[in-house]
Amino acid sequence: MSYLALDQVVKRFGAHTVIDGVSLAAEQGEFVVFVGPSGCGKSTLLRLVAGLEEVSAGDVHIAGRCVTDVDPAARGVAMVFQSYALYPHMSVRQNMAFGMRMARAPKPEIERRITEAARILQIENLLDRRPRELSGGQRQRVAIGRAIVRDPKIFLFDEPLSNLDAELRGQMRIEIARLHRTFGATMVYVTHDQVEAMTLADRIVVLRAGRVEQIGSPAQLYDSPANTFVAGFIGSPRMNFLTGRVAGLEDDAVRIEHPAVGGVLRVPRRAARAIEVNAPVTIGLRPEHLTLAEAPARLALAGDFAENLGATSQLYAQAPTGETLTIQVPGRESVARGEALQVGFDPARVHLFDAGGQAI
Amino acid sequence: MRRPLGRGLHGLGLLLTLVFALFPFYWMVSSSFKAQADLLASPPVWLFRPTLDHYAAIWADQKVTTAVVNSLVVASLTTLLAVVLGTPAAYALARFEFRGKADLWFWFISNRMISPIVLALPVYLLARQAGLLDTYLVLVLIYLTFTLPIVVWICTDQFRAIPPDLEQAARLDGARQFDVFWRIYLPLGAPGIAVSAIFSFIFSWNELLYALVLTRRDVQTAPVVATSFMSGYELPWGKIMATGTLIVLPVTIFALLVSRHMIRGLTMGATK
């Protein structure tokens, strides 16, 4: 059995189902990220793993043991909260020692672990300060330190970086990745930020409305999204979607029609899902896969405006059918409103989805 | 033009309120230093030669010193019990959902709405039946009926303001329910607990009606003794005023010292 396994886990609050039959597994040492929009149930799922919420149905297994009815403290997990949840009336040292004191660990052992964790996180000089005397980044380190000291089987992170400014968030992200490498511990991390998910995760679990939309490595989710939701959620800027029609079918390709394509386009199939001729189809194109240079296929669009990001530019243009597309190009391109744009792309990079939003 | 006028009226209003509130206090304190002749003078004398005779008289009166000790014992015991019983109740109300919670909460608040005089006679009969008249216990019990709600009210609000994440972090750290209360909520709720304890003490210290009804001789409190001077054939205004000043002064000084905290306590829950 996997190190962390969720088996058909359901969580209801009254009549409202927040987690709807989620099953997933993580191996020892794996970094798993739960990602999804606000209210998708990702934090609730983490709290079910921690034992801070009771499951309504299903089971949670940690290290081969069913912990569904086990007290949070006895599950061998440590959690880093979004709010840090440091005890304000205790010093950093007391905060880090609290869990071990509760477990009645011998004092020298507590001191040894605190010293070690403080060294790793470079917070040795902060040990006698109170949380209110620390900056956001320092508090975050202490919160992580408190988790490390407990030597847990699984580290749980609940949107730990969302209270930090952009620069610090970037630094801490790297630090968490480094910690994962150092400890080789199993980590479960909740975020709504897909950049954090893509950079940190060994595996990403995309959630929507309490259900798993797709589980896979960052590359798998990026290259082969299972549906339009995952396709739109993973990748920045967001994937462009056009609604076309199936003009014909081949063994390993679909021929599609859209006014912007100017005829019929042959797109290699990515999934074996059945589709019929004349059925509506959603055409997904990532902004970074569109180009102003020569390419095997072209879209005829009308320019709208450009955003200059320094190294790259984002151009916005409209298809004849009214959809607005984003095109990410290197350099500092500009575009006039209404200017005719010929945008190139590789048909092999096109994603197709059926009327239900599933990849075909 | 309107601004200075508005400010002037505002100041005048404040002055009138201050005079209204403080004049009785001034009259009591100044009267306690007046000789008997000045006390009874009509029209009243504003400038007089102060005397400590009345203080010497009440200091020599064992009834007064015993009453001050009684007041101290009753107010301290009441405050201690109100905090010991009220803080766990406040924790439960702040953090747990249980059947009847809303009704209990309403009860805690609503029993401040009942005028004590309505209950004086039934309480007297109950206390007599139970053989508790003229004991510390009956005063402490009856004072708890209004100090306990104050503690529960203020502390519930204080505990609600403590982020639930802290409790969850502590549970993950292996803290049991009591540890969470003892090690997290009590220290973090200390300002609210202190404020509610101060209020409990002041209310118990100042209470007159029940003390008058439920005590005879042994455990008479200071306010009761002060009013007891009024019985008989003379009105020893000097002694009454000196005793009154002695009762009010420590609490007033204390209240001024902690007024910042008290205002915070009073506005707790007023804003979120």
From TrEMBL, chain A:
Compartmental location: Cell inner membrane
A Pfam family this chain is assigned to: TOBE_2
Primary site of residence: membrane
Sequence ranges assigned to domain ABC transporter in this UniProt record: 4-234
Keywords: ATP-binding, Nucleotide-binding, Transport
One Gene Ontology cellular component: maltose transport complex
InterPro entries, per database record: AAA+_ATPase, ABC_transporter-like_ATP-bd, ABC_transporter-like_CS, ABC_transpr_MalK-like, ABC_transpr_MalK/UgpC-like, Mo/tungstate-bd_C_term_dom, NA-bd_OB-fold, P-loop_NTPase
Gene3D superfamilies: 2.40.50.100, Nucleic acid-binding proteins (2.40.50.140), P-loop containing nucleotide triphosphate hydrolases (3.40.50.300)
SMART domains named in the record: AAA
CDD domains associated with the record: ABC_MalK_N
Membrane topology: Peripheral membrane protein
Lineage top rank: taxon: Bacteria
GO molecular function: ABC-type maltose transporter activity; ATP binding; ATP hydrolysis activity
SUPFAM superfamilies, per database record: MOP-like, P-loop containing nucleoside triphosphate hydrolases
Similarity annotation: Belongs to the ABC transporter superfamily.
Record protein name field: sn-glycerol-3-phosphate ABC transporter ATP-binding protein UgpC
Name of encoding gene: ugpC
Automatic annotation (TrEMBL), chain B:
Residue ranges of domain ABC transmembrane type-1 in the record: 68-258
UniProt cross-references to Pfam families, sorted A to Z: BPD_transp_1
Segments passing through the bilayer: 12-29, 72-93, 105-124, 136-155, 184-205, 240-258
Keywords tagged on the record: Cell membrane, Membrane, Transmembrane, Transmembrane helix, Transport
PANTHER family for this protein: INNER MEMBRANE ABC TRANSPORTER PERMEASE PROTEIN YCJP (PTHR32243:SF18), MALTOSE TRANSPORT SYSTEM PERMEASE-RELATED (PTHR32243)
GO BP field: transmembrane transport
InterPro entries (UniProt xref): BP-dep_ABC_trans_perm (IPR050901), MetI-like (IPR000515), MetI-like_sf (IPR035906)
One term under GO cellular component: plasma membrane
Compartments, record wording: Cell membrane
Protein name, entry field: Carbohydrate ABC transporter permease
Membrane-protein topology: Multi-pass membrane protein
SUPFAM superfamilies per the UniProt record, alphabetical: MetI-like
Family: Belongs to the binding-protein-dependent transport system permease family.
